[in-house]
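Quick start: what a row looks like.
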Amino acid sequence: MVAMSNRDAHDQALNSVEDQLSLFWRRARSLSAQLSRQVHPDMEPAAYGLLSVLRREGPIRLTELASCLGVGKPSVSRQVAFLESIGLVYKEADPLDGRASSIRLTPEGEAKMSQVQDARRQAFRERLNEWPDEELETLAGYLARLNEI
């Protein structure tokens, strides 16, 4: 009987984690949509993620960008074409392989992303400012562990 109650407690804890992660993901999607509109009113949230990777990684090939995002090349190609059309990214010859091209942020893309990401970081700081450092480090560790999946 004890094993069953341990199992019930474990199931209840897993359900609680699932509920909290679902809420977190819904809020993250909503935030991503808001941030993408701040960069450009017609930009899809997926394009914001693409710009974030470009800002973090620097110039990158389309295949590597798709891999970082966990999506297919056609989806990334479509987003890159849109972002090129509004002047936020451009393609250049890859210095390691002239047949390939790398995608990078334009100065305007860098400026827009800097502005939006600074605002996002400020919102995180305001929300988490009261948390003790050790709790923030614990949260970061748990999220990293979860992201390893």
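That is the whole record. The chain has a mean pLDDT of 89. The radius of gyration is 20 Å.
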